[in-house]
Amino acid sequence: MQDAQATAKMLSEALPYLQRFSGAVVVVKFGGNAMGDDAAMAEFARDIVLMRQVGVHPVVVHGGGPMINDMLGKLGIKSEFVRGKRVTDKATVQVVEMILSGLVNKRIVQAIMDAGGRAVGISGKDDDLMVCEADDPELGFVGRPVEMNVQVLRDLYNAGIIPVVAPVATGMKDNETFNVNGDTAAGAIAGALQADRLLLLTDVPGVKDASGQVMTQITPDEIRQMTADGVISGGMIPKTETALMAIEQGTRAVTILDGRIPNACLVELFTDHGAGSQIRATAPRVTPHVKR
Ligand SMILES: Nc1ncnc2c1ncn2[C@@H]1O[C@H](COP(=O)(O)OP(=O)(O)O)[C@@H](O)[C@H]1O
Ligand SMILES: CC(=O)N[C@@H](CCC(=O)OP(=O)(O)O)C(=O)O
Protein backbone atom coordinates (compact mmCIF):
# COMPACT_ATOMS: atom_id res chain seq x y z
CA MET A 1 0.00 0.00 0.00
CA GLN A 2 2.84 2.39 0.87
CA ASP A 3 4.42 1.78 -2.53
CA ALA A 4 1.10 2.40 -4.24
CA GLN A 5 0.66 5.67 -2.37
CA ALA A 6 4.19 6.78 -3.24
CA THR A 7 3.50 6.09 -6.93
CA ALA A 8 0.19 7.96 -6.81
CA LYS A 9 1.86 10.93 -5.04
CA MET A 10 4.63 11.00 -7.63
CA LEU A 11 2.08 11.04 -10.46
CA SER A 12 0.16 13.80 -8.74
CA GLU A 13 3.31 15.89 -8.31
CA ALA A 14 4.03 15.50 -12.01
CA LEU A 15 0.68 17.09 -12.98
CA PRO A 16 1.96 20.67 -13.52
CA TYR A 17 4.74 19.37 -15.74
CA LEU A 18 2.41 17.09 -17.68
CA GLN A 19 0.14 20.08 -18.29
CA ARG A 20 3.06 22.29 -19.24
CA PHE A 21 4.45 19.85 -21.80
CA SER A 22 1.16 18.76 -23.30
CA GLY A 23 1.49 19.45 -27.04
CA ALA A 24 5.18 20.36 -26.73
CA VAL A 25 7.69 19.25 -29.35
CA VAL A 26 10.72 17.62 -27.72
CA VAL A 27 13.67 16.55 -29.86
CA VAL A 28 15.73 13.84 -28.15
CA LYS A 29 19.25 13.07 -29.37
CA PHE A 30 20.16 9.54 -28.30
CA GLY A 31 23.95 9.24 -28.52
CA GLY A 32 25.69 5.95 -29.23
CA ASN A 33 27.48 6.11 -25.87
CA ALA A 34 24.17 6.58 -24.05
CA MET A 35 22.54 3.55 -25.69
CA GLY A 36 23.94 0.78 -23.52
CA ASP A 37 22.50 -2.73 -23.49
CA ASP A 38 19.07 -4.04 -24.47
CA ALA A 39 17.61 -3.24 -21.04
CA ALA A 40 18.77 0.41 -21.27
CA MET A 41 17.40 0.63 -24.81
CA ALA A 42 14.05 -0.77 -23.63
CA GLU A 43 13.92 1.77 -20.81
CA PHE A 44 14.70 4.66 -23.16
CA ALA A 45 11.95 3.47 -25.52
CA ARG A 46 9.48 3.21 -22.64
CA ASP A 47 10.21 6.82 -21.62
CA ILE A 48 9.69 8.01 -25.20
CA VAL A 49 6.37 6.13 -25.42
CA LEU A 50 5.32 7.59 -22.06
CA MET A 51 6.10 11.09 -23.34
CA ARG A 52 3.91 10.43 -26.37
CA GLN A 53 1.19 8.97 -24.13
CA VAL A 54 0.98 12.20 -22.09
CA GLY A 55 0.70 14.39 -25.17
CA VAL A 56 4.31 15.34 -25.87
CA HIS A 57 5.51 15.05 -29.49
CA PRO A 58 8.91 13.35 -29.19
CA VAL A 59 11.22 13.32 -32.21
CA VAL A 60 14.18 10.95 -31.76
CA VAL A 61 17.46 11.71 -33.55
CA HIS A 62 20.15 9.14 -32.89
CA GLY A 63 23.89 8.70 -33.12
CA GLY A 64 25.84 5.47 -33.19
CA GLY A 65 29.51 6.46 -33.23
CA PRO A 66 30.68 3.38 -31.24
CA MET A 67 28.71 1.04 -33.54
CA ILE A 68 30.30 2.69 -36.60
CA ASN A 69 33.73 2.28 -34.97
CA ASP A 70 33.07 -1.46 -34.45
CA MET A 71 32.17 -2.04 -38.09
CA LEU A 72 35.04 0.11 -39.43
CA GLY A 73 37.36 -1.92 -37.18
CA LYS A 74 36.04 -5.21 -38.59
CA LEU A 75 36.55 -3.91 -42.12
CA GLY A 76 40.04 -2.62 -41.33
CA ILE A 77 39.10 1.00 -42.17
CA LYS A 78 40.90 3.58 -40.03
CA SER A 79 39.00 6.60 -38.79
CA GLU A 80 39.84 9.77 -36.90
CA PHE A 81 37.95 12.68 -35.35
CA VAL A 82 38.60 16.39 -35.77
CA ARG A 83 36.81 18.71 -33.31
CA GLY A 84 34.40 15.89 -32.41
CA LYS A 85 33.48 15.01 -36.01
CA ARG A 86 34.56 11.92 -37.95
CA VAL A 87 36.76 12.49 -40.99
CA THR A 88 34.68 10.65 -43.60
CA ASP A 89 35.89 9.36 -46.97
CA LYS A 90 33.79 7.51 -49.60
CA ALA A 91 34.30 4.06 -48.05
CA THR A 92 33.52 5.36 -44.56
CA VAL A 93 30.30 7.12 -45.55
CA GLN A 94 28.93 3.82 -46.89
CA VAL A 95 29.59 2.13 -43.57
CA VAL A 96 28.10 5.09 -41.69
CA GLU A 97 24.87 4.89 -43.71
CA MET A 98 24.66 1.11 -43.31
CA ILE A 99 25.10 1.24 -39.54
CA LEU A 100 23.03 4.35 -38.78
CA SER A 101 20.11 3.97 -41.22
CA GLY A 102 20.12 0.18 -40.88
CA LEU A 103 21.30 -1.35 -37.64
CA VAL A 104 20.91 1.46 -35.12
CA ASN A 105 17.78 3.10 -36.54
CA LYS A 106 15.85 -0.15 -36.74
CA ARG A 107 16.94 -1.22 -33.25
CA ILE A 108 15.42 1.96 -31.81
CA VAL A 109 12.25 1.68 -33.93
CA GLN A 110 11.81 -1.92 -32.74
CA ALA A 111 12.35 -0.95 -29.09
CA ILE A 112 9.68 1.78 -29.31
CA MET A 113 7.22 -0.64 -30.88
CA ASP A 114 8.03 -3.25 -28.23
CA ALA A 115 7.11 -0.60 -25.63
CA GLY A 116 3.70 -0.20 -27.28
CA GLY A 117 4.39 2.93 -29.35
CA ARG A 118 4.30 3.52 -33.09
CA ALA A 119 7.60 4.52 -34.68
CA VAL A 120 8.86 5.12 -38.20
CA GLY A 121 12.57 5.24 -38.95
CA ILE A 122 13.86 7.62 -41.59
CA SER A 123 17.12 9.35 -42.40
CA GLY A 124 17.82 12.92 -43.42
CA LYS A 125 17.48 11.69 -47.02
CA ASP A 126 13.78 10.84 -46.71
CA ASP A 127 11.52 13.52 -48.13
CA ASP A 128 14.65 15.73 -48.31
CA LEU A 129 14.40 16.25 -44.55
CA MET A 130 17.96 17.51 -44.34
CA VAL A 131 19.94 18.72 -47.36
CA CYS A 132 23.63 19.35 -46.72
CA GLU A 133 26.77 21.01 -47.93
CA ALA A 134 30.26 19.84 -47.03
CA ASP A 135 30.98 21.12 -43.53
CA ASP A 136 34.72 21.55 -43.90
CA PRO A 137 37.04 20.27 -46.68
CA GLU A 138 39.24 18.69 -43.98
CA LEU A 139 36.36 16.40 -42.95
CA GLY A 140 35.42 14.93 -46.37
CA PHE A 141 31.81 13.76 -46.62
CA VAL A 142 30.64 15.39 -43.40
CA GLY A 143 27.51 17.42 -43.93
CA ARG A 144 26.30 20.74 -42.60
CA PRO A 145 22.52 21.02 -42.98
CA VAL A 146 21.63 23.98 -45.20
CA GLU A 147 18.03 23.19 -46.07
CA MET A 148 15.52 21.60 -43.71
CA ASN A 149 12.14 20.17 -44.74
CA VAL A 150 10.60 19.15 -41.44
CA GLN A 151 6.99 18.76 -42.60
CA VAL A 152 7.47 14.97 -42.77
CA LEU A 153 8.22 15.01 -39.02
CA ARG A 154 5.08 17.04 -38.27
CA ASP A 155 3.02 14.69 -40.45
CA LEU A 156 4.35 11.71 -38.51
CA TYR A 157 3.90 13.07 -35.01
CA ASN A 158 0.49 14.55 -35.79
CA ALA A 159 -0.53 11.03 -36.84
CA GLY A 160 0.66 9.67 -33.48
CA ILE A 161 3.85 8.19 -34.93
CA ILE A 162 7.23 8.80 -33.31
CA PRO A 163 9.84 9.74 -35.93
CA VAL A 164 13.29 8.18 -35.44
CA VAL A 165 15.90 9.97 -37.54
CA ALA A 166 19.32 8.65 -38.63
CA PRO A 167 21.78 11.52 -39.25
CA VAL A 168 22.63 10.72 -42.85
CA ALA A 169 21.72 13.22 -45.56
CA THR A 170 21.78 14.06 -49.25
CA GLY A 171 24.02 16.75 -50.71
CA MET A 172 22.94 19.72 -52.81
CA LYS A 173 24.45 18.18 -55.94
CA ASP A 174 25.25 14.80 -57.54
CA ASN A 175 23.22 12.87 -54.95
CA GLU A 176 26.18 12.72 -52.61
CA THR A 177 25.67 11.06 -49.24
CA PHE A 178 26.81 12.98 -46.18
CA ASN A 179 27.61 11.80 -42.67
CA VAL A 180 26.09 14.32 -40.28
CA ASN A 181 27.12 14.37 -36.65
CA GLY A 182 24.08 13.26 -34.61
CA ASP A 183 24.19 16.35 -32.41
CA THR A 184 24.36 18.64 -35.44
CA ALA A 185 21.36 16.89 -37.01
CA ALA A 186 19.34 17.04 -33.78
CA GLY A 187 20.03 20.77 -33.37
CA ALA A 188 19.10 21.53 -36.98
CA ILE A 189 15.86 19.58 -36.59
CA ALA A 190 15.02 21.19 -33.23
CA GLY A 191 15.75 24.63 -34.71
CA ALA A 192 13.63 24.04 -37.81
CA LEU A 193 10.74 22.71 -35.70
CA GLN A 194 11.24 25.53 -33.16
CA ALA A 195 11.04 22.77 -30.60
CA ASP A 196 10.21 23.47 -26.99
CA ARG A 197 13.12 21.33 -25.83
CA LEU A 198 16.19 19.66 -27.25
CA LEU A 199 17.57 16.93 -24.98
CA LEU A 200 21.08 15.73 -25.83
CA LEU A 201 21.62 12.38 -24.08
CA THR A 202 25.24 11.45 -23.61
CA ASP A 203 27.62 9.65 -21.23
CA VAL A 204 28.54 12.52 -18.89
CA PRO A 205 26.27 14.22 -16.32
CA GLY A 206 26.45 17.54 -18.19
CA VAL A 207 28.90 20.25 -19.22
CA LYS A 208 31.77 20.49 -16.75
CA ASP A 209 33.58 23.71 -15.87
CA ALA A 210 37.37 24.04 -15.57
CA SER A 211 37.27 22.49 -12.08
CA GLY A 212 35.24 19.50 -13.29
CA GLN A 213 31.93 20.62 -11.70
CA VAL A 214 28.77 20.06 -13.74
CA MET A 215 27.11 23.39 -14.55
CA THR A 216 23.31 23.24 -14.20
CA GLN A 217 22.85 26.46 -16.21
CA ILE A 218 25.06 27.82 -18.97
CA THR A 219 24.58 30.89 -21.12
CA PRO A 220 25.64 31.08 -24.77
CA ASP A 221 28.41 33.55 -23.80
CA GLU A 222 29.82 31.12 -21.23
CA ILE A 223 29.84 28.37 -23.87
CA ARG A 224 31.80 30.55 -26.30
CA GLN A 225 34.34 31.43 -23.61
CA MET A 226 34.72 27.82 -22.37
CA THR A 227 35.26 26.61 -25.94
CA ALA A 228 37.89 29.28 -26.59
CA ASP A 229 39.62 28.26 -23.33
CA GLY A 230 39.57 24.56 -24.31
CA VAL A 231 37.36 23.61 -21.31
CA ILE A 232 34.78 22.38 -23.79
CA SER A 233 36.54 20.00 -26.18
CA GLY A 234 36.20 16.85 -28.31
CA GLY A 235 32.69 15.36 -28.52
CA MET A 236 31.26 18.18 -26.38
CA ILE A 237 31.98 20.72 -29.15
CA PRO A 238 29.27 19.53 -31.59
CA LYS A 239 26.80 19.42 -28.67
CA THR A 240 27.33 22.96 -27.47
CA GLU A 241 27.64 24.25 -31.08
CA THR A 242 24.32 22.66 -31.95
CA ALA A 243 22.72 23.96 -28.75
CA LEU A 244 23.64 27.54 -29.67
CA MET A 245 22.37 27.09 -33.22
CA ALA A 246 19.06 25.55 -32.09
CA ILE A 247 18.49 28.36 -29.58
CA GLU A 248 19.28 31.01 -32.20
CA GLN A 249 16.63 29.45 -34.41
CA GLY A 250 13.95 29.46 -31.73
CA THR A 251 14.33 26.29 -29.66
CA ARG A 252 13.38 27.35 -26.13
CA ALA A 253 15.95 25.36 -24.16
CA VAL A 254 18.57 22.69 -24.66
CA THR A 255 19.65 20.23 -21.96
CA ILE A 256 22.81 18.13 -22.14
CA LEU A 257 22.34 15.20 -19.76
CA ASP A 258 23.48 11.70 -18.88
CA GLY A 259 21.39 9.27 -20.90
CA ARG A 260 22.62 6.36 -18.78
CA ILE A 261 20.78 7.46 -15.63
CA PRO A 262 17.42 5.74 -15.22
CA ASN A 263 14.53 7.59 -16.87
CA ALA A 264 16.77 10.54 -17.81
CA CYS A 265 14.21 12.23 -20.10
CA LEU A 266 11.42 11.93 -17.54
CA VAL A 267 13.55 13.35 -14.72
CA GLU A 268 14.39 16.35 -16.90
CA LEU A 269 10.89 17.04 -18.20
CA PHE A 270 8.56 16.01 -15.41
CA THR A 271 10.31 16.65 -12.07
CA ASP A 272 11.38 19.69 -10.05
CA HIS A 273 14.86 18.30 -9.97
CA GLY A 274 15.72 18.41 -13.67
CA ALA A 275 18.95 16.89 -14.92
CA GLY A 276 22.20 17.88 -16.60
CA SER A 277 23.17 21.29 -17.98
CA GLN A 278 20.54 23.58 -19.40
CA ILE A 279 21.26 26.22 -22.03
CA ARG A 280 18.79 28.90 -22.96
CA ALA A 281 19.10 32.34 -24.50
CA THR A 282 18.38 34.00 -21.19
CA ALA A 283 18.92 32.45 -17.72
CA PRO A 284 17.17 30.89 -15.34
CA ARG A 285 15.60 27.44 -15.28
CA VAL A 286 11.97 28.65 -15.27
CA THR A 287 9.98 26.60 -17.72
CA PRO A 288 7.70 28.75 -19.86
CA HIS A 289 4.18 27.65 -20.63
CA VAL A 290 4.62 25.57 -23.74
CA LYS A 291 1.07 24.59 -24.54
CA ARG A 292 0.26 25.25 -28.19
N1 LIG B 1 33.53 20.55 -20.64
C1 LIG B 1 33.15 19.27 -20.84
N2 LIG B 1 32.18 18.74 -20.05
C2 LIG B 1 31.78 17.46 -20.23
N3 LIG B 1 32.29 16.62 -21.18
C3 LIG B 1 33.25 17.10 -22.01
C4 LIG B 1 33.72 18.45 -21.87
N4 LIG B 1 34.66 18.65 -22.82
C5 LIG B 1 34.80 17.49 -23.49
N5 LIG B 1 33.95 16.53 -23.04
C6 LIG B 1 33.85 15.18 -23.57
O1 LIG B 1 32.69 15.06 -24.41
C7 LIG B 1 32.24 13.71 -24.35
C8 LIG B 1 30.81 13.58 -24.88
O2 LIG B 1 30.82 13.56 -26.29
P1 LIG B 1 30.68 12.19 -27.14
O3 LIG B 1 31.62 11.16 -26.57
O4 LIG B 1 30.81 12.54 -28.57
O5 LIG B 1 29.21 11.76 -26.74
P2 LIG B 1 28.03 11.02 -27.55
O6 LIG B 1 28.62 9.77 -28.14
O7 LIG B 1 27.03 10.77 -26.49
O8 LIG B 1 27.54 11.98 -28.60
C9 LIG B 1 32.42 13.35 -22.89
O9 LIG B 1 32.50 11.95 -22.69
C10 LIG B 1 33.73 14.08 -22.52
O10 LIG B 1 34.83 13.23 -22.68
C1 LIG C 1 30.30 13.56 -38.68
C2 LIG C 1 30.19 12.64 -37.52
O1 LIG C 1 30.94 12.74 -36.56
N1 LIG C 1 29.21 11.72 -37.57
C3 LIG C 1 29.00 10.74 -36.55
C4 LIG C 1 27.56 10.21 -36.71
C5 LIG C 1 27.15 9.35 -35.55
C6 LIG C 1 27.10 10.10 -34.24
O2 LIG C 1 26.97 11.33 -34.16
O3 LIG C 1 27.16 9.28 -33.15
P1 LIG C 1 27.24 9.64 -31.61
O4 LIG C 1 26.12 10.56 -31.30
O5 LIG C 1 27.07 8.31 -30.95
O6 LIG C 1 28.58 10.26 -31.33
C7 LIG C 1 30.01 9.61 -36.67
O7 LIG C 1 30.44 9.28 -37.78
O8 LIG C 1 30.35 9.01 -35.62
> Helicity level, as a percent range?
40-55%
Ligand kinds: adenosine-5'-diphosphate, N-acetyl-L-glutamyl 5-phosphate
The stretches of 5 or more residues where confidence is low (pLDDT under 50) are 284-292
Which architecture per CATH?
3-Layer(aba) Sandwich
Query: How many individual helices?
Result: 10
Name of the CATH class: Alpha Beta
User: Based on the structure, what is the oligomeric state of the protein chains?
Assistant: single chain
Strand order of the largest sheet: 5-8-2-1-11-13-14-12
Distance between the termini: 38 Å
CATH superfamily: Acetylglutamate kinase-like
- Give me the CATH fold name: Carbamate kinase
Order of helices and strands: HEHHEHEEHEEEHEEEHEEHHEHE
Structural class by SSE content: alpha/beta
Describe the overall structure.
The protein has 292 residues and is an alpha/beta fold. The protein has one domain (20-279): Carbamate kinase, CATH 3.40.1160.10. It contains ten helices and 14 strands. It has helices at 2-21, 32-35, 38-53, 65-75, 90-114, 151-158, 182-193, 220-228, 236-248, 264-270; strands at residues 25-30, 57-62, 81-82, 85-86, 119-123, 130-134, 143-148, 162-166, 168-171, 177-179, 197-202, 217-218, 253-258, 277-279. The strands form three sheets. The protein has an eight-stranded mixed beta sheet with strand order 5-8-2-1-11-13-14-12, with helices on both faces. A four-stranded mixed beta sheet has the order 7-6-9-10. Strand 3 and strand 4 form a beta hairpin. Mean pLDDT is 92; it is low at 284-292. The site of adenosine-5'-diphosphate has 18 residues, from helix 2.
